[in-house]
From TrEMBL:
This is Uncharacterized protein. It comes from Sipha flava (yellow sugarcane aphid). Residues 49-71 are annotated as: Disordered.
């Protein structure tokens, strides 16, 4: 008897449906996470683009070096830029992972229907 002539195993459809539902749930979670990361990234980029005044602090003596103030602003800006890059990278990784899962799900679905 050829393996193509065999009837399908009992319960396979239920197992497949459970797996598909689980994959769909995971995809939804990944979409939500990816959307949140993209929103955070966009928000941080907007913060970085808009000129920000430093928080009001007690007045310091006039002798304070103006260059030191600029260095603090540049340091903060650099930290935000680095964080933004990290979040962008994470968002791309999640997007790639989501795409890979969708492709795998479609391939598995085609195999089951074939």
């Amino acid at each position: 008897m050829d393996c193509l002539d065999r009837p399908p195993l009992v319960g396979t459809d239920m197992e497949t449906n459970k797996k598909e539902k689980l994959i769909e749930e995971i995809l939804e979670q990944e979409k939500e996470t990816n959307g949140q990361l993209v929103a955070e990234c966009s928000e941080r980029l907007e913060i970085e683009k808009t000129p920000q005044r430093p928080a009001l602090k007690r007045r310091k003596p006039e002798e304070e070096d103006e260059e030191a103030r600029w260095n603090v602003d540049l340091h903060t800006s650099a930290e935000l830029r680095d964080e933004s890059r990290k979040l962008g990278t994470k968002a791309r990784q999640l997007s790639d992972r989501l795409l890979e899962m969708v492709v795998t799900m479609r391939i598995n679905k085609e195999r089951m229907t074939a």
